[in-house]
Amino acid sequence: MSGFVSTPDTSRKSRADSTPEDAPQAIPPLPDFNGRVLGAAAFCGIIVAGVVDGIFPESLLWLLAAGVFWPHTILFLSRKLGADRQPRIRQYLLLVECISGGLVIGLTGLTPVPSLAMALMLMFSCLIVGGLYLWFYGTLLLVAAAGLVVGLLGVTEDFTTPLLTSLVSLAGTGLYICVTAFYTHQQARILLAAKTQIQKQREQSIALSDKLSKYLSPQVWQSIFTGERDVRLETRRKKLSVFFSDIKGFTDLSEEMEPEALTELLNNYFNEMSEVALRYGGTIDKFVGDSIMIFFGDPSSRGQKEDALACVSMAVDMRNHMKIMRQRWRSQGIRTPLEIRMGISSGFVTVGNFGAENRMDYTIIGKEVNLASRLEQLAEPGQILVSYETFSLIKERIMCRDKGEITVKGFGRPVAIYEVIDFRRDLGPNRSFLEHEHAGFAMYLDSGKIADNDRKAILQALEEAAERLRVEEESEQT
Prior knowledge:
membrane; 8-stranded mixed beta sheet; Adenylate cyclase, class 3; Nucleotide_cyclase; adenylate cyclase activity
């Protein structure tokens, strides 16, 4: 005797969990056990009617006992095999029912109306639970099982179906299909309401995450919302390039302007400088007063050399962009000349989440951070000062001027610093800076810093070096 599964596959956790509490609550889906009980009752009714009408032998009444135990047997197997966690187990059990149903149809001798009624209930269950795929294989197994029994026992001699058997078959099948369809429809409504609610919540989450992203650097926000980084207190050592900048003359300007106008000017400055920083891939750490702190190399890095180059390139771009902003401010009546000064240092720092479990700040600490801040304070208006570590990473593409050494707290020895001039490609033929470095030869020339009384000595040294190279070249040729 065969029972039935009456509802589509909704055992997956994602669907069950996705139904929100405020979604319209319709009648819950018809459970598998109840569906099998209803199907088994229809089968038993058809068998009893057939025996009463005399078209089925009384020996088939043993199927009534099988019909009573079948739903309980399948329920036991479902729990044992974990059908609620594995939807395919549920489909396999339904295929087993198709085989058993085919055997019952074969035992009835393929009496037309009862056979079609029982086959229709099974096929309807397959179509709802597994779609056309399960329907096809279920039909195939049912036909094969029925054909096997018919091949052994033969078909009925009289293909006419009495009225009672026909009515019970049609009534049982109709009741099963109508009840199943009703519960399936109600379930579809629940799923549709849940889908609508999920879509609404998704849109709200996107809007909220967009608002929250304003408080984080895009790289940090991206790494958190994509799951690449956990939000927990953790730090690590990493080599980064750190940038500090502030506006020279801002304090004087704050005494001349109204707070509202000053706030608008400062926000405009931060907005445009942030766009420059993001264009070069910098992670904006914080804004403090008129100062900006940015670092390169975390959460994403292109390599130490490229990170340092991107940091210095950003600084040069900011310095050039400041000229445009000064003209714009001048047209707005702001006559105080505002200049940006910047400091950059490269080295190992501690980067990560600092703070408490309920309030974290993604930032960096270390002596290189202090050095970058110190260089920014020492820089003249419009000047970019970098540490020796940064200079060694960028010197092939950016011209720098040696500014001597400074003493910085936390460093055992004086620190060599350099001033960024410009990209080498942007320096014209009249540039005052020349630098050449080869094996056995190194030259750094800043003609703008050479005093008149030193010029002759330098020329003499260069001429002696050139003469010596010529003599060695002529001796090699001979």
